[in-house]
Amino acid sequence: MQSLIDWVLSFQNPWLTEPIVRLLSHLVFAPIVAVAAPAALIILTWLERKIIGRIQNRLGPNRAGPFGLFQAFADMVKMFTKEDITPANADRIIYNMAPGLGVISSIMTFAVIPFVPGFLGADLNVGLLYIVAIGGLGTLAILMAGWSSNNKYSLLGAFRVVAMMLTYEIPMVMTLIVVTMAAGSMSMAAVVEAQSGMWNVVTLPLAFVIFFMAGVAEVGRSPFDLIEAESEIIAGFHTEYSGIKFGMFMIAEYVHMFALSFFAAVLFFGGWQVPFVDVSSWSGPIGSILGLISLLIKVFSFVFVMMWLRGTLPRFRIDHLQNFGWKFLVPVSLFLVIVVAVVIRMFAPGSDVSVAGPLSGLVPFGEWVALLVANVLVVVVSLFVVSRVARSSQDKGLRAVAAIEGVSAK
Amino acid sequence: MLQEFEFLGVLGAITLTIPVVTLIIAWLLRPKKPNPAKQETYESGIKTIGDTWVQFKAQYYIYAIIFVVFDIEAVFLFPFAVALRQLPLYSLIWAIVFIVLLFDGLLYGWRKGALHWN
Q1: Is A156 a domain residue?
Q2: Which residues of B touch A30 (CB under 8 A)?
Q3: For B59-118, CATH number?
């Protein structure tokens, strides 16, 4: 983007001063970012139905347009022309604000994603913190919706959001800290560039697994979708919503899922990096196009995995969910932060004795191997502790599971 | 660096118009035929008993309180993570002590039964 601004500035036009050109470029790119995310929804909803359909041995939508591709447009028409019923007891202002806030928070996360080399909306030096903060707004929107509907099912759904999303935010933030330590920066562009040698998923596999699980929970998708568990609390927080306001919650959910796939690709799978090819050094648009294609392939694989999960796994029970989050993911992610900090510190460069790590000569291969070994070590140790605790547990069911797993392991 | 936030401002303004425009279009298109039965609170077909906004279980909020501990920890750990490669060794040791202390807080809550769901 900076190169484009410099190019326009090279005309030496007296009207085109730098702030104006920058504002113009923002006015061009911001609508693209803002509209591209909801537009991807058309593909995402179609993909979801087709994939879930295939998993359940049926065809999925196939009437509207070729292969049912226009199903999303048909849905849009339906939602726009449905009557919007607002319950008489609802808190009207908050009730109407909530779906809008959900949509805004999910689209705003796209501001910091580096799409191609040298182009991203805002290269914030607090990019990783920004996605956590904006993601928190989505939780707020759900809480507002549940509270203002004045319906017991909605309120229960909103409470579950508070309990669940907060739980899974901690492991997610911890893995973001691990990524920050590996990259030495919180800017998303710097994180991608730091992976030019080796993708984070190879050196930090456990961090990626924790990030993805916590991310799926944050987005509120199956198997963590008990905020809208229809067998227990009807539709959760959006029980009272109808018409386009319900549709906006759907948009928020899908865009959020899309954003999570982008984050997984950018933080752990090298973003626009292509394996064995240095795309950023290519001049001209071909490098950028290749980078974008590489990024989109990664993103859509994550989207596919999430749909696959939805088609395969049953829903968690809420106490299992909380136990898994607080008593397993949080301690493991804290442990991982400590271990990775020690390993990275050992490989720190520098000539000063108090700063340089003892193994700084082995960068980068030694560091990659050491990080990988450290991750595997954390997995082994934590699984060992869990199996010991389960075997000596008061809970009969847990002991039985531990016994079966012990047999199958031998 | 501050100029990067300009983009967020522009994007925020544009994003804000999306739900507003959507709501206006839907308001123009949709039928409006409210009646009292339709506007009742949905409760599987029966009348709602009692008020919704009453005292609720604190269960959900104990988690929120423990969360605050870790949220603040994260804010302190991010600068540490950025500067890790330039820090002297003792600051790493202090960071580990800090994490362990907070983990101790989690263990305390665990022992007190705050993490037990009933």
Answers
A1: yes
A2: 7, 10-11, 14
A3: 1.20.58.1610
